[in-house]
Amino acid sequence: MSLTLKVNGENREINSPPDTPLLWVLRDELDLTGTKFGCGVASCGACTVHVNGRAQRSCVLPVSAVGEQEVTTIESIESKAAQAVQQAWQELDVVQCGYCQSGQIMQATTLLEDHAKPDDTQINTFMNGNACKCATYHRIRAAIHRASEIMEA
User: Fold this and answer.
1) Which of 62, 63, 68, 81 is the most exposed place for a label (fewest CB within 10 A)?
2) What is the pLDDT at residue 134?
3) Would you say the pTM of this structure is higher than 0.85?
């Protein structure tokens, strides 16, 4: 079945069944491999993308549910919050293995778009569900605080 998705600002025609998870369309059909597969049940956050500017787990989101909504992947995220998050991630050397980081960045960006100066409780609550096997949580939290400072400057 042919569907059209708006991904990273472009209309893209796909030929996947409507129940195909968005993750697999992004990775296998559109070759956008920055979005990772982790668990397949929306509990690790590695597959996080933005749908209409909101963090969503793409591994459980069927393409038929996306409709005309805008999908943004790590490959093209460009908001002020996203740029601040990416800068902070580099400054504080957050990444260890890096596998989960695209999902962490997408989630953190949504957090900062909702709360420009989150406290530790807000960060912990909002980032809960984004797993990091390397346990870089303290660096992720510090980078979110740093990104907030960058946005404020």
Assistant:
1) 68
2) 95
3) yes
